[in-house]
């Protein structure tokens, strides 16, 4: 592969070579069905058991509370849609959630649940006051993401948990932690959350595998039906090679070191972006450093994206799941149309360096000059 400058790590990350090797070796050497009771099946079951133990330890949860899924979208769907068996009541979410959350909750509205959608403040965060004002005794579910996938805003989920326990003690609290997992420390027991979604391919693991933490209180139900794999919550033969790759990615996470390295890159990138008068940074100053969202006035996002792509620099104009639609996150933040239409997201990983930022800035300037 030719040299590229990949700055779209919130969409997906390049898998580690060690992950690729682990997936390949597991697929070739441990092909048994983990539900089979013969020796080959038991080998696969052992890999599954070890991965569940290591990933559970990473999140500080009980092994029996971890369910493997196909990724963040399925985890969000199971977490949210499985409460449809509960007594009808209020569901609280936000206008900046991932589309898999918003569409799941829309389906529950059709089943008679009352839906409350909280708006973010100017920094793209949900305030404690906003949440307090909408919590009630008949609230059955609160679903709020930990880190926003477009602007990197970090919500104070631990504070939210305490507020929910106080004002809506019977409510289930779900966190979409897809963008936070493996980047900041997550101690589920300390947060006080009932459901938490996460995915492998955001942390240099394989695509097609993710996880859902579900406490006993959540009493989740399956949304697809089949065998008794994953205690019947997510039936179907487990993808053992992907599970092994997920475990490998988790074992190779060095959160503190990587965070510090990315923070330096973020500071340098913001400094260079601020030198260009046509640019305004949309991410809050205290956002997760892995993500910077900014607008380049006078140039629509797609034009800049294509210009950079032709030069081997890969970014995004919004969440990968949004396709060609404008950002509902920036719209909820009440940014003006020009700012939304010219918005760019760059997102970093351990493979990025200062040279990538220099390359990005140089070519943004070149695009601005070419269009004058």
Overview of the structural elements:
By secondary structure, the chain is an alpha/beta fold. It has 2 domains: 5-12 and 254-370, Aspartate Aminotransferase, domain 1; 17-251, Aspartate Aminotransferase, domain 2 (3-Layer(aba) Sandwich), CATH 3.40.640. Helix content is 39%, strand content 14%. The protein contains 13 helices and 12 strands. Helix 7 links the parallel strand 6 (172-176) and strand 7 (195-199). Helix 1 runs antiparallel to helix 8. It is globular. It starts with a strand and ends with a helix.
User: What is the name of the CATH superfamily of the largest domain?
Assistant: Type I PLP-dependent aspartate aminotransferase-like (Major domain)
- Helix content class: 25-40%
Overall morphology: globular
- The CATH architecture designation of the largest domain is 3-Layer(aba) Sandwich
Q: What structural category do the secondary elements indicate?
A: alpha/beta
Return the average pLDDT rounded to an integer: 94
Short description:
This protein is α/β, with parallel strands linked by helices.
Keywords summarizing the entry:
Aspartate Aminotransferase, domain 1; Aspartate Aminotransferase, domain 2; 39% helix; alpha/beta; 13 helices; three-stranded antiparallel β-sheet; 2 domains; seven-stranded mixed β-sheet; globular; 372 residues
SSE blueprint:
Layout (H helix, E strand, L loop, with lengths): L4 E2 L10 H13 L9 H21 L6 E4 L2 H10 L8 E5 L4 H12 L3 E5 L9 H7 L4 E5 L13 H11 L4 E5 L11 H4 L3 E5 L10 E5 L25 H12 L3 H19 L5 E3 L9 E6 L4 H9 L3 E2 L13 H5 L4 H5 L1 E5 L6 H17 L2
Parallel strand pairs: 1-11, 3-4, 3-5, 5-6, 6-7
Antiparallel strand pairs: 2-8, 7-8, 9-10, 10-12
């Amino acid at each position: 592969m030719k040299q590229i400058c990949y700055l779209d790590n919130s969409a997906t990350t390049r898998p580690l070579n060690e992950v690729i090797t682990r997936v390949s070796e597991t697929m070739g050497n441990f092909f048994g069905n983990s539900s089979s009771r013969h020796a080959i099946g038991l080998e696969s079951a052992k890999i599954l058991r070890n991965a569940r133990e290591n990933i559970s330890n990473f999140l500080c949860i009980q092994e029996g509370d971890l369910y493997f899924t196909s990724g963040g979208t399925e985890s969000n769907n199971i977490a949210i849609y499985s409460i449809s068996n509960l007594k009808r009541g209020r569901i609280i979410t936000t206008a900046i959630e991932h589309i898999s959350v918003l569409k799941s909750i829309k389906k529950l509205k059709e089943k008679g649940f009352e839906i409350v959608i909280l708006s973010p403040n100017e920094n793209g965060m949900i305030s404690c006051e906003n949440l307090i004002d909408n919590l009630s005794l008949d609230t059955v579910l609160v679903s709020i993401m930990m880190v926003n996938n477009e602007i990197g805003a970090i919500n104070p989920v631990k504070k939210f948990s305490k507020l929910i326990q106080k004002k809506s003690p019977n409510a289930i609290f779900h966190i979409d932690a897809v963008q936070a997992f493996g980047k900041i420390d997550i101690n589920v027991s300390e947060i006080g959350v009932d459901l938490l979604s996460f995915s492998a391919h955001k942390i240099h693991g394989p695509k097609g595998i993710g996880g859902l933490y579900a406490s006993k209180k959540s009493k989740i139900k399956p949304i697809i039906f089949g065998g008794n794999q994953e205690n019947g919550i997510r039936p179907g033969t487990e993808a053992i090679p992907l599970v092994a790759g997920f475990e490998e990615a988790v074992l190779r996470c060095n959160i503190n070191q990587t965070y510090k390295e990315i923070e330096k890159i973020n500071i340098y990138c913001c400094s260079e972006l601020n030198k260009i008068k046509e640019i305004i940074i949309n991410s809050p100053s205290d956002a997760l450093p892995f993500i910077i969202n900014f607008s380049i006035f006078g140039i629509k996002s797609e034009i800049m994206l294509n210009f950079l792509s032709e030069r081997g620099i890969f970014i995004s104009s919004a969440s990968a799941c949004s396709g060609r639609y404008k950002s509902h996150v920036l719209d909820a933040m009440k940014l003006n149309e020009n700012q939304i239409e010219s918005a760019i997201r760059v997102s970093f990983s351990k493979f990025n360096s200062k040279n990538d930022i220099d390359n990005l800035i140089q070519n943004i300037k070149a695009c601005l000059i070419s269009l004058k």
